Amino acid sequence: MDMCSSSAKHPVLLEKTKTEDNEDKSQVKFQENEFIPKLQENTVHSQVIGECSDTRKDLSDAGSSSLPTLQKFLPTNYNSYTKEHYSYAGKNIIIQESIESYGAVVWPGAVALCQYLEQHSTELKLQGATVIEIGAGPGLVSIVASLLGAHVTATDLPDVLGNLQYNIFENTHNCTVHQPEVRELVWGEDLELNFPKSAYYYDFILATDVVYHHYFLDKLLTTMIHLCQPGTVLLWANKFRFSTDYEFLEKFKQIFNTTLLAEFPESTVKIFKATLKWD
Ligand SMILES: C[S@@+](CC[C@H](N)C(=O)[O-])C[C@H]1O[C@@H](n2cnc3c(N)ncnc32)[C@H](O)[C@@H]1O
């Protein structure tokens, strides 16, 4: 089964939004169609709804003003690439992936959040919203947020920025109102220096599958906290695999007002909405 080849495969959304802290499982109802995101499968869509026709060209074709930024991140030296196809916001999106890096593959949480953003873009007021994605990987979520009208900054570790920039440019050039920006953001490092609170306000922080078996969970939490200001909404989608993932969630809920927006029982992906507790 591919990740999003059929519009019939909707995520399993909770019938009503619930506060995770007070979750009453008996009240949770699901739609019949279950959505099981999978990693590393070909995701060719049977029907291409739309495409930024003039974006399928080399970055070298970019306008001269964009070139310095683009060249900064090139090349990314993966030996094996594959192209995966998605369809969101009425556009065909092609993501260049490589199995050589966690950050060069689209993860299940990204697919889940893209569907959520697409289905709820109006109520979220994404049009014109300022959005930062942390751990953006190959960029699918940032691309979708941008196609839905948001002003997006996609961030990640230095070694994946080349591929991220490539995917973002190829999929948004000439078809978004605000051309997304790609920036280095290493969790917990130089946050106030590179993203001073006085200069940057984000309506949304997006994060997908940033919690897994790694040693930077505290720094990730510090980063989420730093990027939050009053009114900032954090949308975090994650596949829950390990006990450490649930331990992170417990810590997270102590710091953020946390609402479970959607969950996907088969794949154990959950989407949370959170705002920082300010007291
Ligand atoms: C599992 S991948 C998820 C990628 C993408 N968000 C998705 O869902 O498809 C985790 C991402 O977090 C990034 N990451 C891991 N550790 C990081 C750190 N210390 N600082 C910044 N980004 C980090 C990785 O480079 C990678 O892109």
TrEMBL record:
Any matching Pfam family: Methyltransf_16
Source taxon at top rank: Eukaryota
Repressor among keywords: no
Biased composition (Basic and acidic residues): 12-26
SUPFAM superfamilies named in the record: S-adenosyl-L-methionine-dependent methyltransferases (SSF53335)
Annotated region (Disordered), positions in chain: 1-26
CDD domains, per the entry: AdoMet_MTases
InterPro entries: Methyltransf_16, SAM-dependent_MTases_sf
GO MF terms, alphabetically ordered: heat shock protein binding; protein-lysine N-methyltransferase activity
Keyword field: Methyltransferase, S-adenosyl-L-methionine, Transferase
Any one GO cellular component localisation term in the record: protein-containing complex
Gene Ontology process terms (BP): methylation
Matching PANTHER family: HEPATOCELLULAR CARCINOMA-ASSOCIATED ANTIGEN, PROTEIN-LYSINE METHYLTRANSFERASE METTL21C
Record's protein name: Protein-lysine methyltransferase METTL21C
Gene it is expressed from: METTL21C
